[in-house]
Amino acid sequence: MKKFILLLFAIGSAVFGDNISEAQEYFNRGISNYEFQNYSKAINDFSKAIELNPANADAYYNRGLSNYNLKDYASAIRDYSKTIELTPNDSDTYYNRGLAYSDLKEYQLSIRDYTKTIELNSHFVNAYNNRGFLYNQLKDYSLAIKDFTKAIELDANYSKAYYNRGLAYDNSKNYALAIKDYSKTIELAPKDSDAYYNRGNSYNHLKDYPSAIKDYTKAIELNSHFANAYNNRGHLYGFKGDYKAATKDAKKACSLGSCGLFDMMKKNGYLKD
């Protein structure tokens, strides 16, 4: 009887070993398909690898990445959760699950995952930036600014963190500091039209209209389809009494889908040829 049990174990080990080897082949092919952005094929391969080896955390993780790239965020979350069950201390998995929750607008769950990411890896700069972005969305500007500041401490050339902190300062009506951060963003990323546009808005709030017009103009140079930049510049031209320039901007903004200024000027008889 004892020998029979050992024989069964030996046979089982051989079969299990074959499964592991075949699972690895499917996994490797899945990685190749993923790299070539064949995400549906990659999912099929990773699923087969999981079927053959249910303990393969990497297969769940990469299937999660593939589902995420197909915008199937719910499936991605399920795969990341299984990965966490198998490898509970992997910061990348928490981070990516946080991205998926964020895309589903499950902000509190996303913040929870970014926080866990940071607990596991205190130098995970993108986790600070992304958590700060969500705090900004939830109007908790002090926590947002704290996270963006930490991201900048970790990477002094992280232009997006300066930009996002500028937005948080803007939202908390600290326009001078917002301008400082947008200026740093522009220094690091001189073709960022959004940074010029938002710095223009901050100058506008401080009633520095020439600087605001200059920034809106630069935003338009970088992005000729920037409707809000035309709209806001047109408002300032109108405020200065230059209705011809204001009309030109209002018409352009309206052609791009933002007709608020054009309709107001038309209603009040300010449009000029």
From TrEMBL:
InterPro entries: TPR-like_helical_dom_sf, TPR_rpt, Ycf3. It holds the Pfam family TPR_1. SMART domains: TPR (SM00028). TPR repeats lie at residues 23-56, 57-90, 91-124, 125-158, 159-192, 193-226. One of its GO terms (cellular component) is cell outer membrane. Keywords: Repeat, TPR repeat. GO terms for biological process: receptor-mediated virion attachment to host cell. This is Uncharacterized protein.
